[in-house]
Amino acid sequence: MLATSSIDLIGNTPLVTLGRIHDGPGRIVAKAEFLQPGGSVKDRAARAILLAARADGRLQPGMPVVEMTSGNMGAGLAVACAALGHPLVVTMSAGNSPARARMLEGLGAEVVLVAQVDGASGQVTGADVQAAADVAARIAAERGGFYVDQFNAVECIAAHEAGTGREILDQLGSAPDGWVAAVGTGCTFMGVARALKAANPATVCAAVEPQGCEVLAGAPVLKARHVIQGTSYGAVPPHWDATLMDLSLAVTDDEAEDWRRPLAVREGLYVGFSAAANVCAAAKLLQSGRLRPDATVATVLCDTGLKY
């Protein structure tokens, strides 16, 4: 393959078996989304939104692109904006890791840090995210920019249904017995779940939530602050389709920490906390007895650990 730009590098990530940190029952396979040019699964959504907006005229040549980000969507947008010729402005809660801001600035984005409302360093709450989103919307209006508004962009779900989900089916040769993914906007979980359930309605689809912030499970928010950045902000995402979720699996901060290091030192996969939470939840699903002993559960390694 000869790519004409970085946009052509997005997608078609490898599927890797995690047999060194999980020796049964069953097996865990994971999409290596940290190998995307922007370092995360959000590259897919960024490309889908910008190409759709350019196609329907919402995004004109040279127009600024503006978005709130915890880091990953911003990096994906930076990659796509560089290829398409758009300046990028991102707003980010000051509670996100400083390495994320440096990464985005390195990719050419203008980064506007927004003070936290009720979170703490490394623990961003829903209120913190809303404050950053409000600033992004204001900047887009002031500068005549295109406001991405990822939580309300339906293009992201379709991108994962036709892309990530289809790739998993092709790479495995059939639908896995289970699908597990953390939920931020919910687009990765829902898009892949649609593709897998279309191929096999019996595929068990489990949403991953930080323990104490399990809104998809219908539980009250008892712990709005958690280390799994980019996920579970204490509210159900705008386009959430509850019919795609068979169950919710809770992961504690300590569990995410405990799984992240073995992924690096035993599998050679240096990934973030959401990826570690996904693998932890996949193991829990396989150990629950809900699936047959030789079941395959697919998940996603959301991003690189280099920005934490």
UniProtKB/TrEMBL annotation:
For this UniProt entry, the molecular function terms from Gene Ontology, in alphabetical order, are: cysteine synthase activity
Q: So which cofactors does this thing need?
A: pyridoxal 5'-phosphate
EC number(s) on file: 2.5.1.47
The cross-references to Gene3D superfamilies, in alphabetical order and at most eight, read: 3.40.50.1100
Q: Which UniProt keywords apply?
A: Pyridoxal phosphate, Transferase
Q: Name one GO biological process term.
A: cysteine biosynthetic process from serine
Recorded protein name is: Cysteine synthase
Taxonomy of origin reads: Bacteria, Pseudomonadati, Pseudomonadota, Betaproteobacteria, Burkholderiales
